[in-house]
Design a protein that fits this description.
Layout lengths: L7 E4 L2 E9 L2 E7 L6 E4 L1 H6 L6 E7 L2 E9 L2 E4 L3 E4 L3 E4 L5
Parallel strand pairs: 4-9
Antiparallel strand pairs: 1-2, 2-3, 2-7, 5-6, 6-9, 7-8
């Protein structure tokens, strides 16, 4: 794996990284959450990256329980330095099944 620089800033106390590519589309800015097992995406971004829902899960938040679609990216790159197959799951925010 190559070592390089990644654009990152802190906004509202959260780390935001730039230069994220999903399935060859981007660059996007994404929130870094090292304890998360999935990433929330807007429906338009998910569709643009070619992500298709594979199944649905219930997500619980302060506003209640919502059923959301889940997809998996084939490839992900950050800052052009780290690229590889994505092992993460992406749920598509704002879209219900």
């Amino acid at each position: 794996m190559a070592v390089g620089e990644v654009e990152m800033e802190v906004k509202g106390g959260y780390a935001v990284v730039g230069g994220v590519w999903v399935n060859g589309t981007g660059p996007y800015r994404m929130l870094v959450d090292t304890g998360a097992e999935s990433v929330s995406l807007r429906p338009g971004l998910a569709e643009g990256a070619g992500l298709r829902a594979r199944y649905a899960v219930e997500v619980e938040s302060v506003s209640g329980v919502t059923v959301v679609p889940v997809a998996a990216a084939e490839r992900m790159a950050v800052g052009g330095s780290c690229e590889g197959r994505s092992g993460g799951w992406w749920w598509i925010r704002g879209r219900r099944m």
